[in-house]
Amino acid sequence: MVWTKIKESLKETLADNVFQLWIDPLQFEQLQGDRLYLSGPDRYFSAYVKQNFSSVIEDKLQENGLESTKIIFCEKSREQVSAPSTRKSVPGTQMRLPRVPENNSKFRALHPRYTFDEFMVGDCNILAESACRSMVAEDGLVGPCLYINSGTGLGKSHLTNAVAHQVFTESPMTRLHYLTAKQFAAEMIRGIQTKTMDDFKRKYQEKCDILLVEDVHSLTGKKKTQEELNDILDTLIKSGKRVILTSKTTPGDLIGIDSEFCSRMTSGLVTTMKAPDVKTRYRIVEKKALQQQLILDEELVGYLASHVRGDVRKIESALIAVRARARLAGGHVDLDLVREVVASVVGVSQILTATMISELVSGQFNVSVKELQSKSRKKAITTPRQIAMYLARKYTEESLADIGKAFNRDHSTVLHSIKVVSKKLVRDTSVNAQLEILSNKVKQL
């Protein structure tokens, strides 16, 4: 079959993990005229494949003599996705035991790599990760409701996927519903339009053991949806069921959300996931590089971890670019290549250090860097030294000890300098104005 040959060719072209994740799940539906119909697990999966892999698939079509063939992504054929029949079971089919509830779980397509084993734990997310494990174990440490908030790309979806994976592995008959707040709202509207709201409420209130709802901040201003979800949460929580909610903001920062609904969402643990620190980013780079089949030494891993900040998707983007450019360079990866990727793809050319800030401050106060590093206690030297230490602590991720080394001091001296400058900021407006000017210059480095 043509599609089989194309898949074999794609397997040789793409990385194994990329092929297994995005190409292998595609199913051949039909070849009709100049159109090749393919289907994926869901429309979101198909949309991603269409956006990112259409061109490479079309190239393989041309190589197989199908130059003018277009790729059409469609829904799976009805025979594949039709609901289980209510007719009597036939030999070879699974039968339910009496009084065992039908597993009517509904969930988004789970990402195969979004498991607990693949999640990088650090100080920035350890509470959220342990809370999700607690929800799976039902040990009662978190309570029936967990609220996780963080910025984009910091691992909320990874954890909710991990919960679903673990629940289905340990308790396959658990009735789990996993969807976004927008999907919940759309389903409720269909229920109202088709006059099936009783079925809708029964589904979530009576036929649900664990509910995962992502992006509850998107319910802003949707009063009716908030009321329905609030009623469902109330029923589930009182019944001892489990609920996990995610949002990009803390409950207190949610705007256009009913106070009663907000109170219900925060009836259990509320935890915030922050951007990963340098140590966590280092481990993430190592793990993602391994997945991309990239061999990076400690220096290259350290450079990427130090320079690519923010969400994990930036790290993935940088590593994909490194891998692509390494292929063009015959597989060789060096520091110059990594620097080029960081500068062009991530948009960061260098990371701030205490040394860089000391050089800036020395020029501003007309003293040398050696004088800042000296043992001199003259006010003309100590003041800029203290300001430089203060700025280094504020704008770099270096530890107190590392900042101290840049000035030939220990961490206690740095801590003292930070306290001195902080007090001057409150009392002296001229110092405040001077630091504002220096801060703007630091941001431009």
Any overview of this molecule?
By secondary structure, the chain is α/β, with parallel strands linked by helices. 29% of the residues are buried. The protein contains 20 helices and nine strands. The chain has four domains: 75 residues, 2-Layer Sandwich (GMP Synthetase, Chain A, domain 3); 168 residues, Rossmann fold, CATH 3.40.50; 69 residues, Helicase, Ruva Protein, domain 3; 90 residues, Orthogonal Bundle (Chromosomal Replication Initiator Protein Dnaa, Chain: A). Strands 4-6-7-8-5-9 form a six-stranded parallel beta sheet, with helices on both faces. Strands 1-2-3 form a three-stranded mixed beta sheet, with helices on one face. About 6% of the residues have low confidence. Helix 3 links the parallel strand 2 and strand 3.
Highlighted features:
445 residues, alpha/beta, GMP Synthetase, Chain A, domain 3, Rossmann fold, Helicase, Ruva Protein, domain 3, 4 domains, 6-stranded parallel beta sheet, 3-stranded mixed beta sheet, 20 helices
Instruction: Describe the sheet with the most strands.
Output: 6 strands, parallel
Order of helices and strands: HHEEHEHEHEHEHHEHEHEHHHHHHHHHH
Percent of residues in helices comes to 40-55%
What is the name of the CATH superfamily of the largest domain? P-loop containing nucleotide triphosphate hydrolases
Distance between the first and last residues' Cα: 57 Å
Instruction: Provide the number of structural domains.
Output: 4
Give the overall form. globular
Strand order of the largest sheet: 4-6-7-8-5-9
Topology, number of strands: 9
**CATH class identity of the largest domain:** Alpha Beta
